[in-house]
Amino acid sequence: MKFHRISTFVLIYFGTALAFSPFANAATFETNFTQSLTGTDASKGDIWLNSITQNKTKFNNFSFIKKADILYNTPITNVQAGSTSTPGNKNNNTGAASTDKGDKASAPLPVSGLKNPTGAEIAAFLGNKNLNNIIDTEDDGSFQINLFFDSSIQKDNSELDNLFFWERGMNSNLGIQAIDSTGKLIGNSLQLNSQDQKYAGYSIDTTEIDGAQKVGSWGVQLKQLGVTSLSGIQITTNAKNNGPDFKVIARNGPAYYQTPQPAPKKVPEPNTAAALGLFAVGALRVVKKKSLMTATLPRG
Cβ(248)–Cβ(49) under 8 Å? Predict the structure, then answer.
């Protein structure tokens, strides 16, 4: 089959699947985070997820994305000399999902920009606690991607959500469905509706936009997906969903909070340690010399 026929089939599949997907009920949770920058730069820097609070329960036992299989992702086209993925008169908005980060935020890899991202790149940007490392989706693009967590996610009796999503702009929808360890679809598909998002308490300004946007959040329980366990989720979108720009993690087991370990003490550089050693030896010799002089002085 020719490529354009495959693409047409995929788009029709997306539209049909999402049209009949039940919408997720709104869920509320508090995102507890630390920002590395302040003032107007706060939205551009690292935003580290510390914990989540839901139903008066605080927890930070999370499972992160470790692998991404791209089944379909609208390719970037018409890349000409001087074109860029950043705002401006040479901005290229083709394609669908790409990796993105805050203008001044750290990231495990360079953003994909005008290069179609690999599954490894998508997993790297989703698989960390930095809420300013996201997947950016162009408004007219479509994708179908399998995301695998670093551990199996199991249903429990806590009535807490199992999956947590954040979406920049609070204006997009996202289709999800559980998958097993082989990538096989299980349970039922679910549509995350932009109108059900709750403000997460922060904004982000990433490389592919020219200003800060508020971030919303969704919470999902496994029972909403019709499963008692999953290895990952398949995420889907099409041009009708307004390009979701998102981050996702999962709760790993019964909720618990583990106090973060203090930052390790800085070990002196070798040259510094050597200088301190010489200083200590010199000081010890001075002390000994003074003690000897005091002992040999005649008594009055």
Answer: no
List Cβ neighbours of 131 (8 Å cut-off, separation of 6 or more): 31, 33, 47, 48, 49, 166, 202, 204, 215, 247
- Sign (positive or negative) of CA dihedral 38, 43, 47, 51: positive
Give the percent of the chain with pLDDT over 90: 77
**Distance separating alpha carbons of residues 288 and 15, to the nearest angstrom:** 86
Tokens 């490529």 belong to residue = 3
**Section 173-200 average pLDDT:** 97
- 17's tokens: 């699947």
| Residues contacting 36, CB < 8 A, separation 6+ | 45, 46, 47, 48, 105
Rounded to two decimals, the pTM is 0.81
pLDDT tens readout for residues 275-293: 555 555 455 554 454 544 4
Are 35 and 202 a contacting pair, CB within 8 Å? yes
Strands 62-63 and 246-251, how do they pair? antiparallel
Show me where the domains of the chain are located.
3-251
Pick from 233, 236, 184, 194: nearest CA to 18: 236
DSSP 130: B
Amino acid at 25: N
**What pLDDT sits at residue 139?**
95
C-alpha to C-alpha distance for 49 and 62, rounded to whole angstroms = 10
CA 60 to chain centre: 14
- Torsion over CA: 88, 91, 93, 99 (sign): negative
User: Dihedrals φ, ψ of 246, to 5°?
Assistant: -140, 170
Residue type (1 letter), 276: L
Mean pLDDT of 224-230: 98
Quick: pLDDT tens for 237-272: 999 999 999 999 999 999 999 987 776 665 655 555
Residues 250 and 248: their CA atoms lie apart, in Å, by 7
Element (H, E) at 51: strand 47-54
List, for residues 24-46, the tens digit of each pLDDT value: 555 689 999 999 999 999 999 99
